[in-house]
Give the backbone structure.
Amino acid sequence: MPRASIPPPFNLLLAEDNLPDALLVREAIRMENLPLEVSIAPDGERAIHLIMTAEKDPEALCPHVLVLDINLPRIDGFEVLRRIRASEKFKNLPVIVVTSSDSPADRRQAAALGARYFRKPVTYDEFIKIGAVLRQFLIDNGLI
Amino acid sequence: MEQVTPSGFRRSKQRAARLLCLAMGIGLGMLCAAGGAEEASEYQVKAAFLFNFTKFVEWQAAAFAAPDSPIVICILGDDPFGTVLEQTVAGEVVNGRKVAVRRMKQAPPPKSCQVVFAGRPGKEVLKLLPGLGPGVLTVGEGENFVRGGGMIAFVLENRRVRFDINQAAAENAGIKLSSRLLSVAKSVE
Amino acid sequence: MLTFRDIPIKQKLMVIIMATTTVALVLAGVGIVAADSLLFRSYLKRDLSALARIAADNSTAPLQFNDPRVAADNLAALRVRTHLVAACIYRPDGTVFARYLRPDSNSGCPSAGGPDEQRFSREGLIVSRAIILNGQRVGTLVLLYDLDEIAERMKLYGITVLGVLLVSTLIALLLSTKLRAVIATPISHLVGATTSVSETGDYSVRAQRFSRDELGVLVDRFNEMLAGIQSRDHNLRTALHDREEALRDAEKARERFRFLAESMPQKIFTATPGGVVDYYNRQWTEYTGLTFAQMEGDGWKEYLHPEDVEPVFEVWTRSLATGEPFHAQQRVRRADGAYRWHLSRALAMRDPQGRISMWIGSNTDIHEQKEKEDELRRANEDLQQFAYSASHDLQEPIRNVAVYSEILAKRYSNLLDADGRQFLGFLTEGGRRLATLIDDLLAYTRAGVVESNMTAVDSSAVLGHAISSLAEAIRENEAVVTCDALPRVHMGESHLQQVFQNLIGNALKYRKEDPPRIHISADHQGAAWRFSVRDNGIGIDPHYKEKIFGVFKRLHRDQKYSGTGIGLAICQRVVERYGGRIWVESSPGQGATFFFTIPEHAPRVHSAAV
C-alpha cells in the first residue's frame, strides 16, 4: 500500500482488551492532534478477522497502523503479529506493540517481528509521551 | 754291410738266386751221396768259397796298386776251376772293389794279386808262397798247405768242402781274417 | 644302511684319505706297471734286434760257407737267453739253414715274415733280421722270444706295487688316524659342547678352541653366541619373573578391589578404557535381578529406562572421548520392574603414563530426592506461573487506577477542594506504588524462570542492552558509564541484563551531587567470573550490607529515593539461581562496589524437564 498517496485521516487499529487502556491511547491521539481514526478490536481473534476482511475486501476498512497489546485473550499479540507479517497485503503494516511489563524478551520479540514497542503508562507523564511516540511513529513510517 | 739298399736288395736277390742254385746244387749233390756226377762240383764250391773268402778278409791299402784296383784272384799253376771262378766273380763287388781272376805261371809280382790259389803246390812253390809279399792271401788244398805256411787250405770232410786256416801266416802277411771266417773253418792254427 | 653323508667325520676323513691314497697308489701302480710293460716290450724289441743283428752277423760266414753246424752252434749259444724259444736261419729260398729250438718248445721255426721286423704274436716276440754280407742278403734270421719274461716282470712289478700299496696304505692309515684327530677332535669337542648345552640347557658351557683355523673361528663364534644367548636368557628369566610378580600384584590388587566393591553398599561398576562395562558388583545384580552375563557389554540398555538410553549413552561417549568424569541421572529398573532415579558417576583411572586403564563408577539411588526435587520444582514452577499470570492480571487494573487517578489529578483537580486534592494525591500515589510493586513482583518471579537457551552470552553486549534501556536515566543524571573487557558467561541474557540494569539503576539513583561515574569490570576468580559494578554514589553503611538484599528492604524513605527495594533481591535471586554469589563493599560517602560471581561452567544437571 503506497504510503504517501494515502490521504489522512489514517485508520489506526487498536487491538486492546482493556477499555481504560484503549481510551488512554485514544485520548493521547486527540491531545496530539494526530490524523488517526481509531478502530478497536477487543481480542486477537477479532483483530485477525478484521485484517483478513480488509485483505479480501477492498471496500472494508483498511488499517494503516496497528497498535497491538501483547496480552490479548484468545490469541495473543505476538501470534497476531506473526500472522499479519505472513499476510501478503499487511506484511509491512506499521505496528507498535504495547505491553504492561517491560521485559527484554518481549522487546526482542517485537523487534524481531518488525514492530516498535512501548510500555503502557503508569504515570501521567508516561501517558503524555504516548502522543509524541505515535507522532514520531507516523513520521517514521512516512504517513505524515 | 748290414745296410741293404734297394738296389743292393735287388742285387742280393740275384745273388740269392744264384746262391740258391748253388746251394741247391750242393744240397742235391750232398743227397746224391754216391760219388757219381755232382751237380755242384767240388770246384764250383771251392770257387764259391774262394770268392767268399774275399768277403771275410781285410787287406791293407798297400796291398793294392791303387785305391780302385780290383781284388785279383790269381790261380797259380794248374787251373782246376775252368770258367767257374770267372762265372762266380763276374760283376761282383767286394768292399767297393771289383773282383778279377788271373792265371799265373810264375809268382805274381807284388800288388798284382790279392789272392793266390796254388792248388796242391810242390815244395818249391810252397816255399815261395810266403814270399809273395804282404797282402796276399794264399789259398791251397790239403792239410799240408797250411802246415807249409799257407793261409787257407781246402779240405774235404765227409765229402763236404771245408777249409783250414793258418792265422799266423795270414797275420804275417798283414792280412786280417774275420773271426767269422775263423769260426767256420775246420781248424785254425 | 648309513649313507656316506651320515657316517661320523672321523670315519669320513679316514674314508676320504684312504680312498684318495688307495686310488692314487693304485693308479700309480697300474701306471707304472703298464708303463714298464710297454717300455720293457720296446726294450725287448731292441734287445732282441741287437741280438738278432749279432747273431745274423755271426751267421754270414756259416751261410756263405754252407756250414749249418757252425750256424746251429752259433744259434745254440743263444740258449743262454732262457726266454728265446727259437732261432732260425732261413736261406734265401726260404728253407731253414740252421735252427735252435728251446728244448721244451713244441713249436717249430716261426715264419720269416719281412726282412727286418719285430712283431708280437701269440707265441711271443718275433724278430726277423736279414743276414747281409757284402751288401747282399744271404739269409734271414728269425728269433722267437716268449713273453714269459714280460709276464714275470709284470708279476714282479705287480707284487712290488701291491706291496708298496699295502705298506703305503698302512702308513696312510696310521698317519691319517693320527692326523684326523686334528680335524675330528675339535669338531667332536664342539659337538659335545652343543649337545651338552641342548641337553642341560646350561648356557654357561663354552667350547674349547684348539686351533686358529675355521674350526677355531667356529668355536669362537659359537662361544659368542652362547654368551649372547646366556645373557638374553638371563634377561628373559628376569623379565618373566618380574612380569609374573607384576601379574601377581595386579591380581592381588584386583582381588582387593573386588572384595571392596562387593562389600560396599553402593552399586559399583568398572569399564574398559573403550567403555565396555566388565564388572558389576553384587549390589547391582541383586538390584536389577539380572545376571552379569545379561548386564555386561551392551546389557546396560536392558536396565535403563528407554528414554534415558540415548542421552546417557551420549554423555558416556563424550566422557570416554575426553576422559572427563562422567555423570548422568538415569532411571534404573529394579528387579520388580520399577524404575528408580539413580545418579551415575564414573571416573577414569589412569596408569603412570597418563593413559586410561579403566573407568570406575557407581550408581546412587536418588529416587526419593528426585521425586521431592521434582515436586518442589513443579510446585515452584506452579507458584511462579501463578505469580506470573496473577501479577499480569493484577497489573492492568492497578495501572488503570494509577494512570487515571493521575489524569484526574492533572485535569480535574480544580474541581476539588484542598482536601479533595490531597485525597486524590494519596490515591494517585498509592496507585503508582501498587503498580510499581506489581511490576517488581513480576520481575522477581521472572528471575526464577529457567531460560531455555543456556549458551554462553557476551556480557559486554548484554551490558550494552542494559545501558540502552537506561539511556534516558543515564542522560538525565549526566552519568558516565564505563566498562572493561567482559567475558562470555553461561547465563540467561535477560537475567544478566536484569542484574546489570538493577545495579546501574541503583548507582544512578543513590548518587551524590557529582555526576555519577559507574564502572563495570570482570575478572577470573577460580572457576567463576567475578563482575564488579562500582559507583561514586552515597555509599552504604556496612551494617546493612546484607540486609539490602532482602525483598522489599529499603534503607531510605521513599521521598528521597524512589524504588520498591526489590531490585537487589532480584539480583540476588538471579545470581544464586546460577550458582553465584552477590555482595557489596562500601562505606558511607565513598561510593559502593557491588560484586557478583557467575560460575564458569553452569552446573549441568540432567533432568527429565530439560
Q: What stands out?
A: Residues 10 and 36 of chain A are 5 Å apart (CA to CA). Chains A and B do not touch (no CB pair under 8 Å).
